[in-house]
From TrEMBL:
It holds the Pfam family PPR. InterPro entries: PPR_At4g14850-like_plant, PPR_rpt. Signal peptide: none annotated. Residues 1-25 are annotated as: Disordered. This is Pentatricopeptide repeat-containing protein. PPR repeats lie at residues 59-93. One of its GO terms (molecular function) is RNA binding. One of its GO terms (biological process) is RNA modification.
Length: 168
């Protein structure tokens, strides 16, 4: 209830719109990805840069959504540039990249992206650990006739890093 008395306290300060990632920006990026709307994806990227939504203390949700949108729009050079600028990555980052390479008919690039995740993205915690989406994308890459011989290696590597394959 609104009070006109002199003892009322001031309302809480509004959150700083800078350096925040709103659910709206992620929703817009998902919509742009579904529609494969490259101009909207680029405009949202510019808005996130302007507001600080891609800065390192922020969660990776916006960065991963932007990466996914660029990849769905077929803007691989923009996606790779964003990937190079990302201060950190997670399993969702890698799964998006591996899946995109598979969709683009580049299974060897997908396997390289997975290897990069395990080696170059290593940090004090031991690097990015694959999840079920990363493993599924990797197995998709190994299902290509050109990379079929990598299938056993993919399963062994996934098992070695802690992802157990229980159903075949």
């Amino acid at each position: 209830m609104l009070s006109l008395s002199a003892t009322s306290s001031l309302p809480p300060p509004l959150p700083n719109p800078r350096a925040t990632t709103t659910p709206t920006s992620v929703s817009l990026l998902r919509g742009a990805a579904e529609r494969r709307d490259a101009p909207l994806t680029s405009a949202l990227h510019a808005a996130l840069l302007k507001t600080g939504g891609l800065q390192s203390p922020q969660p990776l949700t916006a960065s991963n959504s932007l990466l996914h949108a660029y990849l769905r729009c077929g803007l691989l050079p923009d996606a790779l540039r964003l990937l190079d600028e990302m201060p950190r990555r997670d399993a969702a980052t890698c799964a998006s990249l591996v899946s995109a390479h598979c969709r683009l008919g580049a299974p060897l690039d997908a396997i390289r992206a997975y290897l990069d995740m395990l080696t170059q993205d290593a940090d004090e915690d031991g690097g990015v650990r694959p999840n079920e989406f990363t493993a599924a994308a990797l197995l998709q890459a190994c299902g290509s006739p050109r990379t079929r011989h990598w299938g056993g290696w993919c399963m062994e590597t996934s098992w070695r890093v802690g992802f157990a394959v229980t159903h075949l």
